[in-house]
Amino acid sequence: MSTTFTLDTSTSRAHPTPAPMKRLTVPAITARKGKEPLVMLTAYTARMAQLLDSHCDMLLVGDSLGQVIYGLPSTLPVTVEMMCAHGAAVVRGSYHAVVIIDLPFGSYEGSPEQAFATASRVLAETGAAGVKLEGGETMAETVAFLTRRGIPVMGHVGLTPQAVNALGGYGARGRSNAEHAQIIDDARAIAEAGAFSMVVEGVVEPLAREIVAAVGCPVIGIGASAECDGQVLVIDDMLGMFERTARFVKRYEDFAGRISAAVETYAGEVRAREFPGPEQVYAPKP
Question: Distance between CA 204 and CA 223 in Å, rounded?
Fold first, then answer.
């Protein structure tokens, strides 16, 4: 089994009986280059991990949790402690998917040694399989340093949210010839440094296809191209939990609307004293 403890299923709503399956591995993900597309979604809680696990090859505990869970204006204030807490929950809630955890802003850029200290802590405290970090050529040395020391690294190039202040916003990248060439160089550098896969975010579609052909590891697209080796979305975006989403998001559900409607019905029944009804109250024993 892919967990080291069990929960009392009679008292914990958080977890049913563990599923008897073997978790995917990082080498298995790398071997999918050019084959069946990889499916990845973000997850931040044990319960969501349970619901997504059997459908996904990878679960990403993204620093997007800063905005999605904590209501922060960007990913920049996210801490290592936040990532560890949510990462451990997702690992506990999953048995099949490879769990990858974002290294938050400021926790790895200073030096390869700083990155190793952060990554080793994250993996030790969560049980996840690997970490993700943003950046291209400037982070290649760090990626190599980590992979040589047994830490699987997923890269992230193109639109890198942790660099939003330097980029000047969340617009698509790679429109100019110079930026196009730089992102290709970034992707090659990260792949050659040993990244087992990489996310390519928010780039013009021809550039995404060029990156897929240029690197030997799987390329996971988000706002990139259907020709990527896999796709990732923020789960709350694709389920329709927010009114505003990026152009590249397809909303597969309207959970925000459904939740609002359910709560409206509940509120009406409470105010009309229709809830709780006979089925929800305890009768005295005879």
Answer: 8
User: Is 164:173 a contact under the CB 8 Å cutoff?
Assistant: no
CB–CB of 91/116 below 8 Å?
Answer: no
Q: Within its chain, how far is the Cα of 105 from the centroid?
A: 15
| Dihedral of alpha carbons 81, 57, 248, 136, sign | positive
pLDDT per residue as tens digits for the range 184-222: 999 999 999 999 999 999 999 999 999 999 999 999 999
What are the pLDDT digits (tens) for 229-246? 999 999 999 999 998 888
Q: pLDDT tens-digit profile of 117-170?
A: 999 999 999 999 999 999 999 999 999 999 999 999 999 999 988 876 666 666
The matching CATH number, chosen from 3.30.420.40, 3.30.70.1290, 3.20.20.60, 3.20.20.80, for 26-238 is 3.20.20.60
In angstroms, what CA-CA distances link 19 with 130, 132, 241, 242? 22, 27, 28, 32
What is the predicted pLDDT for the residue at 286? 87
Could you say which DSSP state residue 163 is in?
G
d(C-alpha 25, C-alpha 22), whole Å: 9
User: Domain spans of the chain?
Assistant: 26-238
d(CA 209, CA 212): 5
Q: Which residues are catalytic?
A: 201
pLDDT of residue 244: 86
